[in-house]
Amino acid sequence: MEVPQACIARMKHINLSFAACGFLGIYHLGAASALYRHGRKLLKDVKAFAGASAGSLVATVLLTAPERIEECNEFTYKFAEEIRRQSFGALTPGYDFMARLRSGMDLILPANAHELAHDRLHVSITNTKTRQNYLVSKFSSREDLIKKWVDGGLTNSLPILPVGRTVTISPFSGRLDISPQDKGQLNVYVNVAKQDMMLSVANLVRLNQALFPPSKRKMESLYQHGFHDALKFLLKENWFE
Where is the motif DGA/G annotated in this sequence (predicted)? Predict the structure, then answer.
């Protein structure tokens, strides 16, 4: 029996979505590096990228400057070390988190990043007054694009796009395509900002690490886990090369 063309088109319409995860974004960078090195077949079929908070930052780099993922990785280690030295982390009075993030990403993203991201990158945004969530895919400038990374994730931490298959990536164990696989005794899941996470001790530890960056050694381990989890996915889906 012939497969309808509409179904074929839908199967070939692939989206990538990176979950909000704070300082666990280093896991995303590991996954993005694996996709860039060994998932070219997949990336050729990706029509849209999506993300929330740190996830949208990595989605932007993978879309607009994939050859600079390693530079982004090194910046993340330095940025986390700087925040660990602050008395109250990123919330330390007088510490300008956004200015530091902007200065680092200015060296990584191309000047026309907002143009490259136009209608291909979908960032989850939350209106802090109404708590209403929406996705934006148009950016007036590179500065506007960077600001959007910080605005989302409160109500929809893992955007699923309406057309095609959305491949989901998260450093939290759950019902996801690319993620750690915790062995929970109860196999119970909780929905946190539209992301199904396993109820496990490991995920509770990860939630703390998302807010307060762990040691560099732990971050390097998270990067490697992201890389290997993405490789497993590529092999399973026959996208590895």
Answer: 151-153
